Request: fold
Amino acid sequence: NAGVMQNPRHLVRRRGQEARLRCSPMKGHSHVYWYRQLPEEGLKFMVYLQKENIIDESGMPKERFSAEFPKEGPSILRIQQVVRGDSAAYFCASSPPPNSYEQYFGPGTRLTVT
Amino acid sequence: QQQVKQSPQSLIVQKGGISIINCAYENTAFDYFPWYQQFPGKGPALLIAIRPDVSEKKEGRFTISFNKSAKQFSLHIMDSQPGDSATYFCAASKNGGFKTIFGAGTRLFVKA
Reply:
């Protein structure tokens, strides 16, 4: 039973480019969460999605960031016009219905903006 | 009110010793308190969790102690081993758990 998968594992982007991070939840899991981790810090909640629905995006910056979880395929976290401050590790987690208490994390995507 | 405060920031323990990490919260609506273990370059892994209706939960060498009146909880690692060297995060969530709030983390190093 494969765990949560994220790709790419490492992503380098120049300032102004777009970053697309992908997350495939564990089999049977319909809830997906994105977190951001800055160096030497804890994880900060960004967004919670179910298939075709954004349930809570209160942790997402208002501009340049968006997330989706389509009916088919992985969840995508998209960062437009990246800036140096976007450099961080981005983790995806998933959980089975009906609630979100037990979250299983992927290995993360480490984004570096040059 | 949404914060979870974790201490110490780093911890060095001798092999075979007890590692203790503490967390405190403010929001009494939190109803689930997990601990995560993270190795360098990896994602956090759920280690053990507790609900506020019990004061202690033990799984192998890992024990959570929960003090509801003080709004504090702690992780105890008995017989600490070098393989336990990792960063540990406490967390708290409510209302189904989707918005988990993490502490800042404790970097544990167990000396052989």
About this structure: The CA atoms of residues 19 and 79 of chain A lie 5 Å apart. The mean pLDDT of chain A is 93.
